[in-house]
Structures are given as structure tokens and as C-alpha cells.
Amino acid sequence: MIDLRQYQESEETFLASYAMHSCNSKGRVHPEQPHAYRGPYARDRDRILHSSSFRRLAGKMQVFTGEMGVYHRTRLTHSFEVASVARTMARALRLNEDLTEALALMHDVGHPPYGHCGEDALSECMRDVGGFSHNQFALVIVQELEQRYSEFSGLNLTAETLGGQDVRAHKQEAAVGRSPLLEVQLVDLADSIAYDAHDVDDALQMGLLSLDELSKLDIVRRALDAISDRHGRLPKQETRQALVHELIDLQVSDLLSGAFDLLVGVDGYDADEVCESGLRLQHSDELRSERGELESFLFKTVYRHPRLIPVRNDASRRLQELFQILTRSPNRLPLRFRGRTQDRPVEQVVGEYIAGMTDQFCDTQHRFAVRNETGPLADW
Length: 380
Fold this sequence. Notes:
Residues 75-196 form the HD domain. It is a single chain. By secondary structure, the protein is mostly helical. The chain has helices at 4-14, 40-49, 52-56, 75-93, 97-106, 115-125, 134-145, 159-169, 171-174, 182-205, 211-214, 218-231, 236-264, 271-277, 285-303, 309-328, 335-340, 346-355, 359-371. It has one domain (4-309): Hypothetical protein af1432, CATH 1.10.3210.10.
């Protein structure tokens, strides 16, 4: 049987000094005995992976909806893609891969149904109780709402995994002064790398934009030139697939190149000393400018596409109607959510209940709530 001493020795061998080492973890709220062959962050990863909230991401759309086909990303596939990109970079930089993967798998578990429009609608509904943040709600899920252990509520994750998600919930504060752990920074960067490339893929496949339109953008033109130099002229579908790969590779390569240069200066520092130094990983100025151009283009031409707007509006209306019904009649909430109204505002609890739903489950509960004036709704 492998024991923790061997696990720690392997980290000392393979991880850089500035990585987050398991032996330096601040532990869990509820102390637990060490596992025989898994470190604390591997256990966090597995707890997130096996949680019901993580599985429900399969029914939550990323940008588009189920009415527009089945090719495009869900929150679940996006989370796996972010984890893949982040873990690849963590390995290259000799950071803690287990912590990186745990953070990546957790980062979207707080998203409500109906993608970005669902979050906008829910935040408007909850404006009197501070609005809604999917990053903050992820912490509520893993600390309170998940019920997988008899000894405590939540998943009892390590302080570092919870702290990484808290950074996402307070990005403005985290952008100055003491910097987050490098693993936390890496996941945030991997998230934007993945969704930029994959939103391009989904939009092209669905016919919401064309390669000709995209080729006017500097980063896309650079990627297409690299594809042409490597493969010559490809069929349209193969070009789309190659473009996604090249967009990811361009961004990852640029980030790693800058990171290698930065991290030479902190070789020998531990993770806490790097945070105190305020070191922040980032893309080159050129690529940041190109990514900004791409994201602005996607916002205008894809996220506000005429085919999407009526679908988004209908979804927002259903969510808002359900919220109004339940805040007027909180007795229709499932039992455990009714219990939470004893010491929390009704609007907050209704928002939590709705935010945990998949798209289809929200549709079903909306239909039931509208047609049945008294019956309680189902728990998720």
C-alpha cells in the first residue's frame, strides 16, 4: 500500500517549489484521516466529479440551447475541456495537477439553467438580496447543498480548492495585491482559452457565422495561416476542426512561453511566497489584444445573434415567472429548501433552488407551477 510519505516525496520530485504542495494544505473544515494513496486535492477532484451538481451540468447549456441541436457544448463538456487545457499547462509548468483539475471541474457547478441569459434573469430577480453570482453559488453548493456524507453538509473540500473558487467569486479584489495560487490563475486562463475556441467551433457548426467573417480577425487569420502552411487547403469541416485546435494551441503556447520566463525569477520560492510577490500569469500584449478582438466579435455576432435572442428571451421569461410564483408561495418549495427559508431571505432560497436546475428540469417545474396552483415542486 502506498502511504502519504511516498505521495509527498513524489510531489517533491515532480513539482516545482512554487507549486501548491499537498503537505502545505490548510486542511478541511471537518478534519479527516489522510487517504492511503490519494492526496487531498485528488480527493477534492473525485468528490466534485461524483457530486450530483457536477452531473447536472450535462443538462445546462453553455451558450446555445437544446432547441438548436446537440453538437454544441454543455457546461459539463466545457468543464472537461477546461480541465484538459489546464492540466496540460500545469504539467508543463510543474504545478499541482490534482489541485488544478479539482478547480477546473468545480468552476462552473454554480451555473443556473439557460446559460448566460439564465444568470442575467436570476440576478435581476434577486437584485434585492444582492443579485446572483454563479461563482459564489458554487461555494454554497459544495459547502451546504450537496448531501453525500452523514457527518457534515457539503463536500468538505480543502481550503485551497474552496479558496480558488472564492477568488473567482471576487475577481476584482483578487486582481490587486497578493496574487492567487498559480493553479488558480491557470484554471481561470484555461477557462477563457477553452470557451473562446469552442464558441467559435459551435457557432461555425451551427451556421451562425462563416470562416470568411472570422478570417478578418487577427488571431483567426494567424491560425488559418498556420493550418495552411501545415496542411495546405483542407475541406470546410476539417478546416473548422483544425481551427479550434490551432486557436487553443496558439493561446496555450503564448501563455506558457511568458510563464516560463516569469517563473525563472521565483524558482526556489514556495507557493505562499509567490502569492506574496503578486506574480500574475498572463498572455503577451499582442495575444491579449487579439483575444479582445475575438471576444468582442463573438459578443456582437454570436451571443446577440437574431436566432438566439428569441430563445434567450423565452427562457428568461420562464425563469422569471417561476421565481415570482415561488417567492409568492414559498410553501411550494421542496422540503429542504423550505427549511432554508427559516434563516435566509425567501428570494435567496428560491434563487438557490432555481439555480441548481438543469434547463429541462426548469422547463418541467415551470409548466407544473403555472398549471397547478398549489402543488409542491420537485427537488433536484
